[in-house]
Amino acid sequence: MIPQYLVDFDVRGLPAVKTDVIVIGSGIAGLFTAIKAAEDRKVIVLTKKSLMESNTRYAQGGIAAVFSEEDSPEYHRQDTLMAGAGLNSSAAVDVLVHEGPEGVRELIRLGTIFDEENGVLALTQEGAHSHRRILHANGDATGYEIVRALIEQVKQDRNIEVWDDHFVIDLITEQGECAGALVQRPNGERLFLQADATVLCSGGAGQLYRYTTNPEVATGDGVAIAYRAGAHIRDMEFIQFHPTALCYPGAPRFLISEAVRGEGAVLRNIHGDRFMERYHELLELAPRDIVARAIVSEMELTKSTFVYLDITHEPADMVKHRFPTIYETCMSYGLDITSDWIPVAPAAHYMMGGIKTDLNGESNIARLFACGEVSSTGVQGANRLASNSLSEAIVFGRRITERIRELAPADWTSLSAGCNEGRTETPIQAIVERRLKLQKVMVRYAGLRRDEGMLNKGLEELKRQLPIFTAALTKREEYEFANMLTCSLLITESALSRQESRGAHYRDDYPLRDDAKWQKHLLQIRDLGIVEEFSDDV
């Protein structure tokens, strides 16, 4: 059993700091939500590293929103629902496609500079989109540009205080409401940060896997601390693997954007044969889960560890102009993408599941909100449509701040939260080695393709690490490992329960989608285990 709190404490004995709104995380969701909340509230933004370190920073392709006269919210809706494989919330998707364009306009007002062509916003197309609706910045550095603009705004805002290098250990709850967070400062001191509202914007969990496009900080902390607090966690079996991450000796698993295929790149196996026509009628622009599994199949057939992405037939000047970051990064490893095929392989990229929220971003715990990748709003379903993640963050970030304005001020003077389990065991040693072992277990047993035997073996391996929860933890790396273990268990258990293949969840022993039995969600609740949920949309 995973405990409610990772450490022993008594909230009455801790130093307390009060604010109006706590925002945990500094990607697009955290920064945008903080800026909107700070219009009439005091906000503290916590980040366990620095403002610049988030998944958003590494987002290349762009942000999806309807701006073309040839496009419409209905087309965007249809594409999102098709990719989501029957598990989207139609109400949440409607919110996204209708409110997304205004959210982009707000980003522009806040200083984001998107690429233009002939004086109008430049739009490109990505996999599973029926129209050109992807806005981008500096060619393939969209996330970096958005974060740059939002950080400038945050630094100028007198209502926002930024706490770098602070780790949120757990949420403090009282009678079904979130009162704030138990926070550890860089010097090891712990404090109780109180607020009327707490917003988790802590991003994804790519670091659960050995190969990922995510930065080191993406360890699933938000889902884990929300689960321990009693929040409902939904659809954790759906982990999206990006089909094309650089796979080259000495290089990290650097993301090769979907937009490269959108601009004409084709996939070839190691023999040089183009293969996507054998897997899907949309070829290289099929949904990500299909492309990723096709690549794995080709790797197995050809006994290779990679396939090639080929854009050498496109004009070199266009490639350099459209993808400067990718071009320069590959060149630094001796690959010229205008003349060389790019070796690529799938890597863990995005978490579709997360903390279940309503259309205002609020969880089942009052005053606790979730925004961005850590949330499960219903937009993404079983497989996120490319470039919908940045749109979701701004649309629901604004809705969260509107809901916060409706909340009455909280009174936390009689709080009695605490934990005294007498944890005296020394912390488990060799966290780095244990983290690597966990990552290998997840790749091997709960990765792109799964079956009952693999998942049970993975679960058995993960459960051997459960003693971490009885140890006296004191360091960020120890808390992170506990959170990674929590999320890994949630993913593996839900993947074992869902006996079908749908979206990003593929089982070799149940290869078909089964709407009659499985067009439903799996909720994971700490005190109840797995609960099946039928939504209004299925």
From TrEMBL:
Pathway noted in the entry: Cofactor biosynthesis; NAD(+) biosynthesis; iminoaspartate from L-aspartate (oxidase route): step 1/1
Sorted UniProt keywords: FAD, Flavoprotein, Oxidoreductase, Pyridine nucleotide biosynthesis
Source species, domain of life: Bacteria
Domain FAD-dependent oxidoreductase 2 FAD-binding per the UniProt entry, residue ranges: 20-390
Annotated SUPFAM superfamilies: FAD/NAD(P)-binding domain, Succinate dehydrogenase/fumarate reductase flavoprotein C-terminal domain, Succinate dehydrogenase/fumarate reductase flavoprotein, catalytic domain
EC number: 1.4.3.16
InterPro entries per UniProt: FAD-dep_OxRdtase_2_FAD-bd (IPR003953), FAD/NAD-bd_sf (IPR036188), Fum_R/Succ_DH_flav-like_C_sf (IPR037099), Fum_Rdtase/Succ_DH_flav-like_C (IPR015939), NadB (IPR005288), Succ_DH/fumarate_Rdtase_cat_sf (IPR027477)
Reactions catalysed, as given in the entry: L-aspartate + O2 = iminosuccinate + H2O2
UniProt GO cellular component terms: cytoplasm
Principal localisation: cytoplasm
One GO term of the biological process aspect: 'de novo' NAD+ biosynthetic process from L-aspartate
UniProt xrefs under NCBIfam families: nadB, PRK07512.1
Family of the protein in this entry: Belongs to the FAD-dependent oxidoreductase 2 family. NadB subfamily.
UniProt function note: Catalyzes the oxidation of L-aspartate to iminoaspartate.
PANTHER family named among the record's database cross-references: L-ASPARTATE OXIDASE, L-ASPARTATE OXIDASE, CHLOROPLASTIC
Identification of the protein by name: L-aspartate oxidase
Classification of source organism: Bacteria, Bacillati, Bacillota, Bacilli, Bacillales
